[in-house]
Amino acid sequence: MKTTIGRLRAPTHTAAMSVQKSLQSFSLQYTYPKCPEPKHITDMDPSQNTVEDLMLRICHLESIGSSKGVCLYTVDGMPLTDDPFFNTWSLEDRHIKSGDVIYAIFTPKENLNASPQNTTRPLTETSRKDTVRCHVMLKGDFEVKVNLATDTISDLKNKLANESGIPAHVLHYKGGDGGVNALESCGISEGTIVHFSLSSFAEKVPDTTEFFSNDVVPSVQQTPKGISVFLSSLYVIKNQPTVLSHKNLIGYIRKLTGCNPLAQSLYQLLMKNRFLSRTQKIAVVEGLYTLFRELLPKLGSKRGEKIIEDLDVFENSTYCWAFLMTEAKIETADHEDYAPVSLMSEDNKRFFDPVTIPGVPGVLEKAFHIDTEKTFGNMAEELKELPQLNVTPPLLLKDLGFLGPNLVFLSADNLGVYMHKDKATPAMIKVYDCLAGKVKDVDVDELAAKTGDHRDDQSLDTTRTPKEAILVLIDTSSSMSEVCYESVEIQKIHAVKELFDNFATRSMAYDFHHVIGLVKFDSTVTTLHTFTETLEKFKS
C-alpha cells in the first residue's frame, strides 16, 4: 500500500532531481481558427515537458507577441488550460498522448487566469498523536500526523502540503473552510477520510449573469457599445425561447467554423445551462468575433456598398445572429450528438464529474472559410423577422404583460437587457447592464427621455398610432445669433428654442400624440435625433 500511495504523490521539486529523456517517439498536432491545416510538434518529452511548455512552444512557433497568450482545448473542444496549477503538470500526467490534436485560441494575456500567490503559513508544531488519512483528487491518499483536539483544517492543509508536495493554496477541503474549529469539532477522527479537491481558485456559487459581464477583451479591439450589443444579444438568445433549436444553431456554427471549442462552449451555455470557465468564455468571444468578421461585409468583399470596420464588428452582432438563425433553419443537427463520458480510475472510482463531448468525425476539416453572397441589407431584412433581437422602445415596457428578456438601450452607447418588472410599480423595470456587470432598477419614463428610440434603419416603433409626424429644421448659422426684435433683447436662436419648448409642453399637456424629429442646418445638415414620441427628448 505504501508503494502505491507513494507512486500517486505529486512530484517533489529538488535541485538534484534527475532528468531522463524518453526514448519513445512523441508527436502532437495543433490547430487554431483559420489555420489552413494542423501543424506538428515532435520534439517534446511527455514525461518531462508540461502543459505550460506546450503553450510556450505553440506561441513561439506562431510568433505570438508578449502581449498575448494561448488557451488550449482538446479536439472535442473541452478546455485544457483552465487552471494554472494543472498547467504545471506533465503532458503524461494530463493524459495528452502521442497523436493527439490540440486546439489553440490566442488571446490577450490580461484574459488569462493567473495563479494566486501561495500564502502558505509556517507549520505550527503540535503534539502529533493522531493520524488522519487525506484523499486528494487525482493524487491519492496521504497519512498526516495531527492533533485532533487542537489542529484546525488550515493546519491540516499545511501539513498535507508538506507531506504531499502539493502547494497548500490549491488544496480545498470538501467539507467547507472549517473556520478556527478543531478537527474533532468538524467531525474528523482517526477513522475518517478527509477529502480535498485541487484548484488554484476558491470555490464560489455560480452567478447565472456572470458570463455576460464585460471581463474578456477581444484580440481585436471593439467599442464599448459593441461589447454591450454582443453580450446582451447572446443573453437574449440564451434565455428567450425561439422556434429554432439551439442544437441546430450550434450545429450550423460548427459547420461554418470547424471550431470545436466555440461549439462545445456554446453547447454548455445554451443547452446545458452550465457555468462556463474563463477559458470557455474566451473561446466564445474570440470564436464569435472571427465568425462575425467573416459574415459582415468588409473592404473588397463585393457585398454591397456598406463596409463594417473591424472595430465595429460586435456592434453588428444582432445582424450576424439573424443570418445564422435564418440559415440554421434549413440545416440538420443530426451530427450534433453529445455523449456523456465518465472518466474513471483503474479501481473504478470516479475522480471527475461526467463531462459531455460531441462525437463528430472529421471535426477539423473547416477553417472559417464562409462563402455568402448576402449583403448587409439582406441581413437587416432577416433581423426584422426576429423580434427578440430587435431593440424595444422603453415606453413599450410599461405594458404589464410584457415579458423579458428583451434588448433595450440604457444609453446611446450601451445596449442592455430588460429582464422583468414589479407589478406594483409598472414604471420601474429590472435591466441587466453588461458593461457594469450588474442588475439595475430603472424608471421607464426617465429611460425614454434619456435614450429615445434608436434605430439603425431609421424606422420608428411607437406605443400607439401617431396623429402627426413633425420634422423641425432649425437654422444654426451665424445669422441666428442676431437680435430677433429691436425692442426685445433676445437672439433669434433662443426665440426659436422657446417657441418649440412651449409647443412640446402644450402637446404633452393635451396628450397630443405627435412624433417629432429635429434637424439643424448651417453649411451642413445634421440630424440631431430621428422621430420620437418622447417629447421630453425633443425638449432636451
Give me the side-by-side strand order of the main sheet: 2-1-4-3
> What integer value in Å does the Rg equal?
30 Å
Domain count: the total is 5
Structural class: alpha+beta
Mean pLDDT: 82
Strand content: 15-25%
Q: What is the global morphology?
A: elongated
Distance between the termini: 80 Å
Helix content: 25-40%
Uncertain segments are 1-10, 12-17, 340-367
Quaternary assembly: single chain
Number of strands: 19
Number of DSSP helical runs: 13
Summarize the biggest pleated sheet.
4 strands, mixed
Structural account:
This protein has helices spanning 2-8, 51-61, 84-87, 153-164, 224-239, 246-257, 260-271, 278-295, 317-328, 376-384, 444-451, 492-509, 535-539, and strands at 28-31, 39-41, 68-73, 101-108, 130-136, 140-146, 171-173, 193-198, 338-341, 355-358, 406-411, 414-421, 428-433, 438-443, 468-475, 483-485, 488-491, 514-521, 525-532. It is an alpha+beta fold and 540 residues long. It has five domains: 23-111, Ubiquitin-like (UB roll); 130-198, Ubiquitin-like (UB roll) (Roll), CATH 3.10.20.90; 210-384, no CATH class; 391-451; 468-539, 3-Layer(aba) Sandwich (Rossmann fold). The strands form six sheets. A four-stranded mixed sheet has the order 2-1-4-3. Strands 6-5-8-7 form a four-stranded mixed sheet, with helices on one face. A four-stranded antiparallel sheet has the order 11-12-13-14, with helices on both faces. Strand 13 and strand 14 (438-443) form a beta hairpin. The longest helix has 18 residues, at 278-295.
